[in-house]
Amino acid sequence: MKKKSLMSLCASTFCASAAVVSSPLTAFANVSSPSMKQKSIVVNQQTISKPYGFVQDDTTYMPIWYLMQALDKLNIHSTWHNHAWSFTTSRTLDLNGVRSGTGTSSIYVNGHLVQKVNEIVAEDPASGHQTTYMPAWYVMKVLNRLHVNSNWNGTVWQINTESQSANFSIQSNTRPPAQRSVSSDDSNIGEQIANYAKQFIGVPYQWGGESTSGFDCSGLVQTVFAHFHKSLPRTAAEQAQVGHVISKAELQPGDLVFFNTDGSDFSHDGIYVGDGKFISATTSHGVQVKDLNDPYYWGPRFTRATNPGL
Hints:
alpha+beta, 6-stranded antiparallel sheet, 5-stranded antiparallel sheet
């Protein structure tokens, strides 16, 4: 998991349809089929994305991937791992009167716990996969502490900052039509990446491993892409936020695939090699090529595919 990644303090509230609420109620951990409606995230008058959101207990929930892309536009780097959403920014953080509250997940800013929230997992219509959704009202509260002004009218989230100079490009929900890069011999770079990864078949699994003496899943992905001068973050959860989220039908060699193997959406990843197969470093047999649609293990655990921007 994927598309790109909010001045004054203000009191902001979210409204659910026509109803305006001062704070959201407790949310459930999982919603099987909420009523999804397309929303818009706008930064400084530029539309960043149009994700699907839903209302639960009188508050609007938005998919975390799109919220992370909006944060990126504000130079707020964020990662999501094990129910912890961590923001890193040079903006001044107001910690006065912090009461984090309760919830299943935590929002940290520069290492400070500022908010507990209840996440909801539901299917994203844009990808067809289970996705983590966050209560946008609480995200706005956190942004207020970073002196970011935003408002919500039930459909559009308007975010305003002092700087208008950033490159706010429109982000679609899937891979935009674009020709992938090619090498000097005119072969597809994705094919090259897939073929290069295959040379590591049989290398044993090693937690934290980044070499032929042993790889973990994200270590293999990072090492392979580094060979082609493509820098990726270190963990699978971070790698899931790079590039554009795509559907299984759009997969091409060199794309990344992600799985929930331990209860978190992006706990394992690998490189798609074509023909419904992917390569990854498995804990049981080291680096192996596996069937993406294996009905017994990988298929049910698949959570996201991305084009990492080749």
